[in-house]
Amino acid sequence: AKAPMRVAVTGAAGQIGYSLLFRIANGDLLGKDQPVILQLLEIPDEKAQKALTGVMMELEDCAFPLLAGMTAHSDPMTAFKDIDVALLVGARPRGPGMERKDLLSANAQIFTAQGKALNAVAKKTVKVLVVGNPANTNAYIAMKSAPDIPAKNFTAMLRLDHNRALSQLANKLNKPVADIEKLVVWGNHSPTMYPDYRFATIDGKSVKDSINDAAWNKDVFIPTVGKRGAAIIEARGLSSAASAANAAIDHIHDWVLGTNGKWVTMGIPSKGEYGIPAEVIYGFPVVCENGEYKMIEGLEIDEFSRERMTHTLNELLEEQAGVKHLLS
Ligand code: NAX
Predict the structure, then answer these.
(1) Exposure pattern of 61-97 as b/e (b: 16+ CB <10 Å)?
(2) Which of 14, 124, 139, 265 has the least C-beta neighbours within 10 A?
(3) pTM of the entire structure?
């Protein structure tokens, strides 16, 4: 049997955690033959720790054959010890009257501390996915706080946006979602993201030609995908949780086990590709193989796309500027 892999999940007693942990323990993350040990982090707050105990009781009660162990933590220095995968879900939500810059600095503190802890105690090969918002900038902060771990190991979640866009296209074309390939979502995980189906195919045929409606792209598709998170909150009274957990599973699963040539979107540090400045964590198209992602390069960027890509980039640069002084 394979040796267990260690997976840390932060915000483990939260909404997303409640969907995510059971799927990891079921083998959906790393494969049906891969035992896992869960190292679960929550804030030291008594209520949060107690809720975490409850979730762990339920995990026990599932008797998952692949769950080789689990531990509860209130300190990232113990939670991240020897981990192979980090799912950084916990973050400071925006409270009433909280300004954007307060939110950024609260999260900068969390992700600086977690980046340092990863640097100190995680495996140097750890694969990090940041889900907690602002996800791209939080991933950037963690990356900058962990100089001994390769920058490429720090990623942010754009996969929910990617999956949302896939389903919108499948609905529009009245075709199975699995038939769509080569979709891209550029930029920040925020309403400024740019879902781009110019290269996409469905059943081998061009999605763009099949839809052939620039107004639908601009006035319906892009805003629907961009505002989907708000629409879920409006309908459910709570933010996306099961779909976010599913996207986190897809992201790490594909990174570790490969995409068989299929394009997926990951928020990854730029090396200057597509004119995006180095180190910005930006949604790019990638394929994954042998535990590594590889960016799809050389796609043509037309004027409309460049405008969208710059708009979402500028938001990221502003977020970065807002936290730069907090990085030590
Ligand atoms: P919840 O508020 O239900 O859960 C968050 C949990 O994180 C809480 O239990 C809290 O105690 C814990 N937490 C806070 N700070 C922590 C820290 N420093 N260390 C460890 N745990 C900590 O939120 P939930 O709905 O689970 O969402 C979690 C995060 O995901 C939020 O930041 C949310 O904005 C973000 N999302 C990101 C998405 C993406 O696509 N990138 C989509 C879904 C989601 O909105």
Answers:
(1) eeebebbbebebbeebeebbbebbbbbbbbbbeeeee
(2) 124
(3) 0.98
ipTM of the complex: 0.98
Left (φ > 0), alpha (ψ -120 to 50) or beta: where does 144 sit? Answer: alpha
| Binding site, annotated residues for substrate | 94, 100, 133, 164
Largest CA distance in the chain: 56
Query: Annotated catalytic sites, by residue?
Result: 189
DSSP letter assigned to residue 87 = E
The answer to whether the beta carbons of residues 248 and 25 sit under 8 Å apart is no
CA of 133 from ligand 1 middle (Å) equals 7
Contact at 8 Å (CB) between 270 and 279?
Answer: yes
Annotation: binding site: 11-17, 94, 100, 107, 114, 131-133, 164
Ligand 1: nearest atom to the Cα of 135: 41
Neighbours of 294 (CB within 10 A): 12
8-43 tens-digit pLDDT: 999 999 999 999 999 999 999 999 999 999 999 999
Pair of tokens at residue 15: 């909404």
Indicate if ligand 1 lies below 6 Å from the C-beta of 269. Answer: no
Cβ of 275 closer than 6 Å to ligand 1, yes or no, is: no
Determine how many CB atoms are found less than 10 A away from the CB of residue 203: 12
Task: Please choose from 38, 55, 239, 282 the residue to mutate so as to test ligand 1's pocket, defined by most ligand atoms within 8 A of CB.
Answer: 239
